[in-house]
Every structure is written in C-alpha cells, then in structure tokens.
Amino acid sequence: MNWLKKVRPKLSTIFRRERPTSEEAKWDTCVNCGQMIYHKEMVAAQYVCPHCGHHHKMPPLERLGALFDGGAYSQITVPKQTDDPLKFRDKKKYIDRIKATRTETGQQDAVIAAEGKIGGIPSVIAVQSFSFMGGSLGVGAGDAFVAGALHAVREKAAFIIVTSSGGARMQEGILSLMQMPRTTVAIQMLREARLPYIVVLTDPTTGGVTASYAMLGDIQISEPGALIGFAGPRVIESTVREQLPKGFQRAEYLLEHGMIDMIVHRHELADKLAAVLRLLMDGARDDRPLALAPPAKARRGAAAT
C-alpha cells in the first residue's frame, strides 16, 4: 500500500481540526495605526485597538450590552413613521435606500433606545449608529430619541444618549431639521422632571446633532479622540482661509476649552456612568429635588425680572 494513502487520512484530520472558522479568520485593520487585529479580539476589546488605543465605531446592540448591568436590557418600542414622507430621489429612491440600509444593519433607523440598569440605577440609553446612513438625524431617529426621553420621564429613570452622526438627513429636508427643536423640547421635559440627561459623544458627532441634543447634556462625556463639531475642519479652513490649531474639534481640544466635562475610555465608561448617576439620582431616590434645573415657575419669574 502506498505510504501516501496511509498518511492522507491523518493529514486531512489535522488540517480539518486546525482550520479556523470564517469568523476566527476575519481580520480588522486599525484606521489609526494600521495594525491587523483578529475580529474576535476587536470585539472582545469593545472595538478599541489593543496596539494604539484608537476607539473604532461600535455596533449599537454591543454598545448597549457593554453599558447596562450584566448586558441586560429591553428595547423601547418606537412609533412607526412614514418611510419616505417627501418622495425624495437622488441617484436612487430614498425608499429603496432606506430599505437596503435596514436589511444591511438590521435596524429600523439610526437611533435605538433601550431600558435597563447602570450601577443598579434605572436608566434609558439611546444609541446613534453611524452605520445607518451616517447616523443621520431624520424623523425616525427623532422618534426614537423622544420615545426614550418620555419613557425615562414615566419611569423616573436617567436618560443617556450616545451620539455618532454626520448631521441631518437631507432626504427628509425640513422634517429632518425639525427634529432639532423637537429633541430639545424632550430634554426640557427631562429637566422639569428632575432627571439627568447625559451625553456620550463618540466619533464623529457633527452637524445638526451637535447643534441640538449633543451639546445640551447636564454632563458632557466624550470618548478619546472623537471628532466633535458643526462643520468639518476642511470646510472651516476653506471658509476662514486660516490653518486651524492642531487637534481642532477633537475631544481633547474641546475639554481644554471647556466645551465638554470629561474624556472617558470606553472600557471605563460603564463604571463612570454608574458613579455619575449615583450622584445625580441620589435626590430622586430620596424624593428630594435634583439641582439640575430651577422649577419652571422660577424660570419664568427670573425671565420677567
């Protein structure tokens, strides 16, 4: 008997056993340092590069699992909206574009809201996903934000938004822009209910999102290196015809200039949120008013004087 016929079955068994699965063999490349990282290692590190610490975009469901105690949460139902209110079309129909994005991401729109506990404290978290049309703010995203805020008011829970967006969704025109005042009103309802509103800024947070709810938090937290601004640096440079300072619009620059309160590494974010909520929700648990905003009557009186 030929020796090859004897060893071939053994070789097949060895290679079959050691062959990695498609998921194990998948690689990611760090956009900052260029290092190759096994996808499963990237997921285990919450999408933070183990070589340079760069914070990559994190899927919304994994973000919720990392922030809520024990990864336990339940999603909040969002009212169904008209998918294509303006019958918009550019290179392709908006209705076709949004259906394709839903199939690709498994999400209904750019914002997902869920309830659970952080450090044992009832909380609602809304996460904005950049993978859904650049995290653009449209009616669906606005509905999810408002639904999450109203749920927090009903349940006397803290409300946290994790932002990641390129701005308003152009395919929805003025309806998209109207989500800016709409979400601002929802934030005011939280304040009148003496409930904390915390913003976690991730890369990137720009456009109409920055011009509305992303900059209205009682506490402004950012991940390291996040781009935060209204217009992008290239647009500003071409407009003012001046070279911008190094690190302009990055989280570290904003912290230095007093526009945010703290920068927190993703691995420490859940613990930091728990610590902040323990301070802010202490009064709510004791039925004492929180000092987040003066009563509505006091505000009107101050305005009159």
Structure summarized in a few sentences:
By secondary structure, the protein is of the alpha/beta class. The protein has 13 helices and nine strands. Helix 8 links the parallel strand 7 and strand 8.
Give your account of this protein's structure.
The protein is of the alpha/beta class and 305 residues long. The protein folds into two domains: 23-56, no CATH class; 58-292, Alpha-Beta Complex (2-enoyl-CoA Hydratase, Chain A, domain 1), CATH 3.90.226. It is built from 13 helices and nine strands. A seven-stranded mixed sheet has the order 3-4-5-6-7-8-9, sandwiched between helices. It has a two-stranded antiparallel sheet with strand order 1-2. Helix 8 (207-210) links the parallel strand 7 and strand 8.
Please describe the structure with a list of short key phrases separated by commas or semicolons.
7-stranded mixed β-sheet; 2-enoyl-CoA Hydratase, Chain A, domain 1; 305 residues; alpha/beta; 13 helices
